[in-house]
């Protein structure tokens, strides 16, 4: 391996003066000083830090340049310059090329959000040896954060391959000037983001919570619900601003988890609380459902176009134009409900309840150690799936498959609620087994939902116009293709279920949760 | 990844200027680039103001591995490294002759470097020897700067015959006209004769004072005068060559 060029960055203390440092080092080298043009740098990532998580940092410099850098080295992965790049928000907004190819699979449907903007200016110093060859670079940077009265001052030393001695010499002089705090290349960005109230990796769509086995069932349940409420609240502004479809999706997942929690964790919270909020959250599920359904349909656009011959694609476009306008309306309604006093009042009641110290009146299971109760809940869900799944025959109705899918989801949620109470490796095994079954059932459901949507749409179409005729033929073509695929998914179900229900897996559940 | 040998049997045809400028352009385009100065005169090394370590010599070069790694130097330009030449390289043939598999030695030395660089340029000494044979085995492309004269044409024929002899494909060879002087009728006639031949690139490098003066300012002309005629000509040549690299 060729060593990367050596680089070191230090915080520049208030007291350190660039001229004094340069004069001092300059005794051993020829020096060239070059002021760097002032630039504005904005850091972008998705709400859930998809790039940062993969050790990447995406920066926009001024209005026309993008740089994707590796973290923590700061090394460039790919860059892009050109006009019209200022407003890129989704990966599909970038022109085809290397940057887009790298971003697409990572960002998915998520939008890039500006995290922090710095106005940066600086001076570059080159150190030359007696052959007038550059042997080291020193950059003095001053980065001023927008909308905050903060300036980050750093100094970066970059060595050149084969000139290690010079690197060491310069580095030593710098230390002599009291510059000793070494920081990462992303120091100013990360500190800047903290000043905005966020910090790297502060949100993930995965649910995770650490419970202690000796916690009472009530303490643990309240902790779980608090975490879920937080997820809902954090996603709300993104839904209202309509940033991307994942905000609503994550919101609804947290909501579904809450509803499952209320149903699965029995006799822990006071019955009137459970009953009230089961109803409230069911209503919230209904209110948010319409917009989500339309979001999901829009995600099918690319797939539908690829399923149909070119002659029918015009019909598909008309169809999606219609969905888009319906979505606009649903989105407005959704924003209205999320801003309504009723909604706010309901959420703050839930919040107040979760934050109350005693959690209200004790119920039958409130004081049980959570680990005992968790095992029971998981086993009950598992047995239910075994029974329902075994009852499914090739001739069974679609409804039975859907019911089984819901039960699998409930099992998945309870495994995730209580994962921290059991050995991590076993939980991983159990979840992976379940995932395989869920993927099959999920695909089946997805295909049913699509066919149902298309049928409904078809029923509403008035015959007559040429446009509608085109639409109807496109939808007919899609229905055939989707139905065929669904048959295949259904056939695959039986072997997936057999694997899930085999005795080793049942044994593992008994061992862990019995 | 490609290894590009800049080669001609004749000296003084603009080989070093080509290697220095094209490797600079390659690095400037974002590709990690290494220039190996195999010519004992060390002109490329001189242009980049690099001084090889006192202990570096031909046997270190042929040993490869760490001995070579430790002697690669960063140039003043990001993404461009240089393996400097040493005067002992004049004895390369004798040193090669003493080794086993003497025809594949350079290829073996370059093998680990292929992983690290997007392009490796070889600035080759002018002659046809065991070293040339090594270079032809190791290189993916042989880039030949050709002054359009009768003698150059002859040299080209000798090169092709040699490639046939050692079983290397003629298609490795890319030719461009170098040090072209507009006012010389013979240059025009030779170019007309050769331009249709396979492997001859449609871009030429004219005879320009800025290129000749590179020894004074000791930088690639493409770095020192990026808007000059010379820099434009090298830029167009590199774009043309890159098309061939993609195919290779």
Total strands of chain B: the figure is 7
The CATH architecture classification of the largest domain in chain A is Beta Barrel
CATH topology description of the largest domain in chain A:
Hypothetical Protein Pfu-838710-001
How much of the sequence of chain B is in beta strands?
A: 5-15%
* Strand and helix order of chain B: EHEHHHEEHHEHEHEHHHHH
Shape, principal axes of CA atoms of chain B: globular
Strand order of the biggest β-sheet of chain A: 1-8-7-6-2-3-4-5
Q: Spans of chain B with pLDDT under 50 lasting ≥5 residues? A: none
Poorly predicted runs of chain A are none
Looking at the structure, the CATH topology of chain B is: Rossmann fold
- Biggest β-sheet strands, sense, barrel of chain A: 8 strands, antiparallel
Helices and strands of chain A, in order, run as EHEHEEEHEEEHHHHHHHHHHHHH
What kind of oligomer do you see? heterodimer
| Integer average pLDDT of chain B | 93
Describe the structure.
The complex is a heterodimer of chains A (514) and B (248). With 514 residues, chain A is an alpha+beta fold. Chain A is built from 16 helices and eight strands. Chain A has three domains: 189 residues, Beta Barrel (Hypothetical Protein Pfu-838710-001); 153 residues, CHAD domain (Alpha solenoid); 146 residues, CHAD domain (Alpha solenoid), CATH 1.40.20.10. With 248 residues, chain B is an alpha/beta fold. In chain B, helix 1 packs across helix 13. The mean pLDDT of chain B is 93. Chains A and B meet through loops of A and strand 3 of B.
Question: What's this model, at a glance?
Answer:
By secondary structure, chain A is an alpha+beta fold.
């Amino acid at each position: 391996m060729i060593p990367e060029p050596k680089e070191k960055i230090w915080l520049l203390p208030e007291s350190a003066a660039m001229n004094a440092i340069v004069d001092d080092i300059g005794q051993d080298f020829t020096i060239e000083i070059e002021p760097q043009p002032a630039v504005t740098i904005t850091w972008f990532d998705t709400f859930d830090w998809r790039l940062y998580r993969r050790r990447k940092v995406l920066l926009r410099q001024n209005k026309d340049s993008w740089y994707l850098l590796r973290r923590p080295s700061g090394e460039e992965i790919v860059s892009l310059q050109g006009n019209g790049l200022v407003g890129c928000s989704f990966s599909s907004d970038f022109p085809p090329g290397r940057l887009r190819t790298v971003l697409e699979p990572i960002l998915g449907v998520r939008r890039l959000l500006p995290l922090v903007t710095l106005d940066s200016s600086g001076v570059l110093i080159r150190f030359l040896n007696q052959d007038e060859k550059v042997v080291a670079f020193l950059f003095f940077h001053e980065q001023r954060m927008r909308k905050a009265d903060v300036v980050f001052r750093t100094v970066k030393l970059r060595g050149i391959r084969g000139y290690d001695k010079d690197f060491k010499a310069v580095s030593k002089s710098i230390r002599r000037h009291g510059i000793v705090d070494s920081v990462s290349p992303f120091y100013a960005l990360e500190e800047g983001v903290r000043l905005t109230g966020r910090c790297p990796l502060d949100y993930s769509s995965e649910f995770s919570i650490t419970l202690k086995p000796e916690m009472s069932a009530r303490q643990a349940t309240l902790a779980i619900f608090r975490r879920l409420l937080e997820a809902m609240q954090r996603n709300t502004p993104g839904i209202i601003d309509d940033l991307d479809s994942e905000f609503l999706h994550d919101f609804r997942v947290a909501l579904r988890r809450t509803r499952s929690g209320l149903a699965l964790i029995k006799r822990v919270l006071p019955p009137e609380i459970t009953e009230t909020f089961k109803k409230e959250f069911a209503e919230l599920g209904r209110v948010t459902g319409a917009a989500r359904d339309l979001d999901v349909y829009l995600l099918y656009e690319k797939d539908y176009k690829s399923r149909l011959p070119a002659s029918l694609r015009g019909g598909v476009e008309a169809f999606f134009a219609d969905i888009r306008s319906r979505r606009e309306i649903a989105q407005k309604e959704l924003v209205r409900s999320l801003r309504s006093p009723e909604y706010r009042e309901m959420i703050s009641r839930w919040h107040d309840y979760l934050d109350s110290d005693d959690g209200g009146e004790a119920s039958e299971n409130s004081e049980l150690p959570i680990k005992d109760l968790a095992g029971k809940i998981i086993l009950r869900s598992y047995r239910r799936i075994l029974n329902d799944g075994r009852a499914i025959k090739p001739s069974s109705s679609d409804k039975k498959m859907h019911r089984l899918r819901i039960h699998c989801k409930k099992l998945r949620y309870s495994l995730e609620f209580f994962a921290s109470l059991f050995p991590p490796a076993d939980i991983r095994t159990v979840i992976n087994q379940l995932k395989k079954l869920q993927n099959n059932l999920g695909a089946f459901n997805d295909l049913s939902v699509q066919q149902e949507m298309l049928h409904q749409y078809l029923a509403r179409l008035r015959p007559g116009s040429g446009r509608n005729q085109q639409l109807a033929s496109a939808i007919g073509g899609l229905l055939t293709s989707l139905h065929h695929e669904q048959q295949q998914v259904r056939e695959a179900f039986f072997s997936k279920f057999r694997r899930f229900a085999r005795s080793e897996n049942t044994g593992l559940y008994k061992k862990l949760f019995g | 990844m490609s290894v590009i040998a800049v080669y001609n049997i004749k000296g003084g045809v603009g080989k070093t200027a080509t290697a220095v400028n094209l490797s600079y352009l390659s690095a400037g385009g974002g590709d990690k680039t290494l220039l190996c100065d195999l010519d004992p005169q060390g002109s490329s090394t001189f242009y980049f103001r690099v001084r090889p370590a006192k202990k570096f010599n031909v046997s270190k070069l042929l040993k490869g591995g760490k001995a070579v790694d430790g002697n690669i130097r960063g140039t003043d330009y990001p993404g461009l490294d240089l393996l400097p030449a040493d005067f002992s390289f004049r004895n390369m043939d004798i040193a090669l002759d003493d080794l086993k598999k003497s025809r594949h030695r350079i290829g073996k030395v370059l093998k680990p470097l292929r992983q690290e660089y997007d392009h490796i340029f070889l600035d080759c000494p002018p002659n046809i020897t065991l070293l040339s044979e090594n270079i032809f085995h190791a290189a993916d492309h042989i880039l030949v700067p050709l002054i359009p004269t009768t003698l150059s044409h002859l040299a080209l024929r000798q090169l092709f015959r040699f490639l046939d002899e050692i079983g290397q494909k003629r298609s490795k060879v890319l030719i461009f006209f170098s040090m072209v002087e507009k006012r010389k009728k013979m240059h025009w006639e030779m170019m007309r004769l050769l331009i249709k031949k396979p492997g001859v690139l449609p871009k030429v490098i004219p005879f320009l004072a800025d290129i000749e003066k590179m020894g004074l300012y000791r930088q690639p002309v493409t770095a020192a005068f990026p808007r000059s005629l010379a820099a434009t000509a090298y830029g167009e040549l590199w774009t043309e060559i890159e098309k061939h690299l993609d195919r290779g």
